[in-house]
Amino acid sequence: MELALLQEEFFSHMLVELNRSPRTVEGYGKDLRVFQRFLDEAFPAAKQCIGNITAEILSRYVRYLNWEMRYQPRTVRRHIAALKSLFRYANQQEYLRQNPAAKLLFPRFLQRIPTYLEKEQVRALFETITPQSPPELRDLTILKTLFYSGIRVLELVSLKKEHLDMKQGYLRVERGKGEKQRTIPLHPELQGQLDVYLRDGPSCSGDFLFCNLRGDGLSTEYIRQLLARCTALAGLKTKVTPHVLRHSFATVLYKDCGVDLKRLSLLLGHSSLKDTIIYAHTDLGHLKKAIEVLPVPGKKEEPYYMSDEPFQLQLFEKGFPDQPAGLPGKEEALALERLIAIYTDFQQYERKLSRTTFMSRKNTLLRLGVYLSENVFKSPRIAAADITTGHLRLYLQHLFRDRKLQHISISNTIACLKSFFGYASGRGLISKNPSAKLVYPRLPQSRPKYLQWEDICRLFEAVSREDRFYWRDLAVMMTFFYTGLRLQELIKVKLDDLSPDLERLTVIYGKGDKSRVIPLHSYLQERLRDYLQNGRLFKGSPYLFTSCTGTPLNSSSTLRIFHKSAARAGLTGKKATPLIFRHSFATHLYQNGVDLKRIALLMGHSKIDTTTRYTHTSLEHLREVINML
User: Fold this and answer.
1) Are 453 and 295 in contact (CB under 8 A)?
2) Residue 429 above 90 pLDDT?
């Protein structure tokens, strides 16, 4: 079956059977036309039958989107979703025996904190319109509807008068995103505004609630232009879009009104709480209270228990880099070295793994190749299909017996092997996965190591005032303790990541490319001001902390700061590292009564299970439970 005929049938299936909106089908068509152009350039027309499209071709297309089209990860994710839907349909209709898009993985992307307006900024936006004519009354009503209901712009332009129940005070969204329906209670301010609008506003044809001068329904572009004009008149520096007002609606409810996430998700029309959890990051108030429970040097520590309140580079000009003339088939034995190159390209440019993770996996696989060539195959060229489970077990035994690696390192190696060979077998590059039967070693559940407050004070006091970098070293150590940053996060912090008043720090690229906002402890704010005024020697650098040459502080230099301070403080038998300071940050928060949810937000944990490990460090909490018997 030709690809064009499949797409036509697929779009009809979406419109008629799945009842998808025309805009959704239009978006799928736009993305799949890019795939059609890729096939036209890379393959002859004879290969464009859907039966000839393989997983390797789709993988090369994803690399094309990343390298030649230079699309952002979110855009690449959308294109992959279109491919997955198309080939899933073809597989369900039995046009294909196997789905070549089933193994495509979505790239990771930066999770940004939503932009929103404070209540005062929203009020300033409303004050830019003085309703002296029906069109002006309509515009003001549009702004208030967006803010007081949180509906999307497409939902707003689709509103009709029949969707309003003014007696009961409800607004009904008939066809929201994903064809979902929901009912939103009208705010008294919005209900009063709608009463005036329905009486004195322009008359609309087709029963539309909002219309233009001709009586027809408004376009989404008009709403955006209206917000742009009002934003300029209000003097707001933030770019305000209809979705920013939706974010403002959710953020004000969560942050200022204490609405829980479950009810907020119902008002927003979210299918999952995962979509609503982003608004928990905008409420810095409860995180600021959590940070402030940390003790301050020279001040007696008073235990305080929190209340449970709600709370791309152009890599090539044309074609594909280092691609073989034909895709590897059964007759062509793919060399291990070549397979490693394909896999690492996929991890680095498609999955967008961090450089640390990417280099760790690459080095693990290269060491495997060296071991097999020297001890098993006795040849520099190894066919990837010849590697068996027994060969991998020999390599793991070598790491354990000869290299003396701990079981945690063995476990990480197995994870890398499973990812590598799983990728190769899933793409059809090898017929069998030799790592499938490897078993992870059992690991002891160790408690995180942390320092007592007395030891942390000794480390702060041990920083020498005679040192040229006294202010920097002290600020680095205090930043680790009062923010819980990871080492790689701190050395990437720039001045622009700090708010001008030093109230908060934005972590742009955290672990897993997740971003988060950390309110700064009042004591840390003072120390950072001292550093910026007195101790920052290289003021031209965009980075907050620099080395003695003015370059960004690296891992080795940061560790030396801790080692020097620990030696001067005489902490024998106790390690002082950025990771232990991170554990100390979380442990002291928990011991002072901060709940795990807030600690997880501050630490940047995706799952609260990762944060529960800090509950084992507070024996007094356990003693209270035991005494209840």
Assistant:
1) yes
2) no
The stretch 87-107 carries a mean pLDDT of 88
**Residue 446 or 493, more confident:** 493
Architecture, CATH, for domain 3-92: Orthogonal Bundle (1.10)
Q: What's the fold here for domain 119-282? A: hpI Integrase; Chain A (1.10.443)
Closest alpha carbon to 409 in 444, 365, 441, 449: 441
- Residue carrying the six token digits 């005489």: 570
Integer CA distances (angstroms), 142 to 12, 129, 149, 233, 251, in order: 34, 11, 11, 17, 19
What are the domain boundaries of the chain?
Answer: 3-92, 119-282, 336-426, 453-626
Distance in angstroms (rounded) separating the CA atoms of residues 186 and 586: 42
Cα–Cα–Cα angle for 527, 530, 534, rounded to 5 degrees: 150
Tokens, residue 485: 């940053």
Question: Does the fold of domain 453-626 match that of domain 119-282?
Answer: yes
- pLDDT (tens digit per residue) in 453-512: 999 999 999 998 888 889 999 999 999 999 999 998 999 898 988 988 898 898 877 787
8 Å CB contact between 510 and 518: no
Amino acid at 361: R
**pLDDT recorded at residue 350:** 73
Q: Token digits for 317?
A: 């000009």
The domain defined by 453-626 folds into hpI Integrase; Chain A (1.10.443)
Tokens 């890729």 map to which residue? 38
- Terminal-residue alpha carbon distance, the chain: 71
> What are the strands, taking DSSP E only, across 508-573?
516-519
